[in-house]
Every structure is written in structure tokens, then in C-alpha cells.
């Protein structure tokens, strides 16, 4: 079991590495310099995706048991995507396999190897999110309406995303 101090040290090391070797598509920093368990993230919409050119603010919160358990990633900006909850207490929360608790999926949608593993890093999570923006999973969506729109009215989906991108740029 990871201790809070082990997680603290790992997260500070990851932040230092990201600052030293930035990865295209996002920037990351601490919400509060005294707390490495809460990060602020700016996700940059990837080229050739409906989110191209957008800037989306997000918060990543790590449990004290990190790296044995995954963080949560919540997009705080207005957002429309099949794999991001659109309402309720989980509004804005990103739903991708890499952020699901480790072990077997009780519903059988995911293999244990697709879910959280302690070898994952902030970088691998954010690269997965950038990939999610370019290739949404409509088979097991968090936002059923966005998945349905993408499948049945792709042009309407792209227009809605373009409006959100404009909002993210204009502030």
C-alpha cells in the first residue's frame, strides 16, 4: 500500500519531469504549491479533432493511496464529449479506462490491463485524454447524449464542439 508521503514524493518528481520535458497538448501545475495531490491542467485541443485550438481547464485530484489508485480528472470548462460526464455530481469528470479502479470490470467492458495500474503517470493519463479527444468511445459513454449525437448527427456534434472551442478561446 502506498503511503501519502510516497505519493507526495512521486507526484513532485512527475511535476518536475513535466516542467523539464513538457509534452505537447497540455500544461500542468499545482493548484497550491503545498499540496501535490491537486493539479490544475490546461488541455489544448489536438489538431484534426473537433476540439482543435481550444483551451480547456481541468483539475486532477490524486488520492492519498496514489499510485495504487487512480486520480480523478474533471474538466472545469464547458465541454461536450461522450467520455465526459455532462451533469450531476460527476459533471466534467473524464471517464476512460486508465482512470478506472484497478482490477476486473464487474460489467465486463474492460480488461484489467486496460484499467489503472500503478505504472501509469500523469503524463500517460494526459496523453490518453488527448487521444480520447481525437477518438471518442461511444460504446460505453459517460455522456449518452453526446455519444448519440456523434453517431447520428456528426455534423451537429462538430458544430457544438466548435462553439465550445470558441468559448474556450474567448474566455
Automatic annotation (TrEMBL):
<keyword id="KW-0547">Nucleotide-binding</keyword>
<dbReference type="Pfam" id="PF00179">
    <property type="entry name" value="UQ_con"/>
</dbReference>
<dbReference type="InterPro" id="IPR016135">
    <property type="entry name" value="UBQ-conjugating_enzyme/RWD"/>
</dbReference>
<dbReference type="InterPro" id="IPR050113">
    <property type="entry name" value="Ub_conjugating_enzyme"/>
</dbReference>
<dbReference type="GO" id="GO:0005524">
    <property type="term" value="F:ATP binding"/>
</dbReference>
<feature type="domain" description="UBC core">
    <location>
        <begin position="6"/>
        <end position="171"/>
    </location>
</feature>
<keyword id="KW-0067">ATP-binding</keyword>
<dbReference type="InterPro" id="IPR000608">
    <property type="entry name" value="UBC"/>
</dbReference>
<keyword id="KW-0833">Ubl conjugation pathway</keyword>
<keyword id="KW-0808">Transferase</keyword>
<dbReference type="GO" id="GO:0061631">
    <property type="term" value="F:ubiquitin conjugating enzyme activity"/>
</dbReference>
<protein>
    <recommendedName>
        <fullName>E2 ubiquitin-conjugating enzyme</fullName>
        <ecNumber>2.3.2.23</ecNumber>
    </recommendedName>
</protein>
Amino acid at each position: 500500500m502506498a503511503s501519502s508521503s510516497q505519493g507526495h514524493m512521486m507526484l513532485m518528481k512527475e511535476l518536475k519531469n513535466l516542467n523539464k520535458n513538457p509534452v505537447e497538448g497540455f500544461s500542468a501545475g499545482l493548484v497550491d504549491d503545498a499540496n501535490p495531490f491537486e493539479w490544475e491542467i490546461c488541455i489544448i485541443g489536438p489538431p484534426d479533432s473537433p476540439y482543435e485550438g481550444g483551451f480547456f481547464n481541468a483539475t486532477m485530484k490524486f488520492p492519498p493511496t496514489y499510485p495504487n489508485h487512480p486520480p480523478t480528472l474533471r474538466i472545469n470548462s464547458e465541454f461536450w464529449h461522450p467520455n465526459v460526464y455532462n451533469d450531476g455530481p460527476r459533471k466534467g469528470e473524464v471517464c476512460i479506462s486508465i482512470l478506472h479502479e484497478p482490477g476486473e470490470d464487474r460489467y465486463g467492458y474492460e480488461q484489467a490491463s486496460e484499467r489503472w495500474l500503478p505504472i501509469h503517470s500523469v503524463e500517460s493519463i494526459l496523453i490518453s485524454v488527448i487521444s480520447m479527444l481525437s477518438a471518442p468511445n461511444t460504446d460505453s459513454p459517460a455522456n449518452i447524449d453526446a455519444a448519440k449525437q456523434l453517431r447520428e448527427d456528426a455534423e451537429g456534434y462538430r458544430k457544438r464542439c466548435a462553439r465550445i472551442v470558441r468559448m474556450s478561446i474567448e474566455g
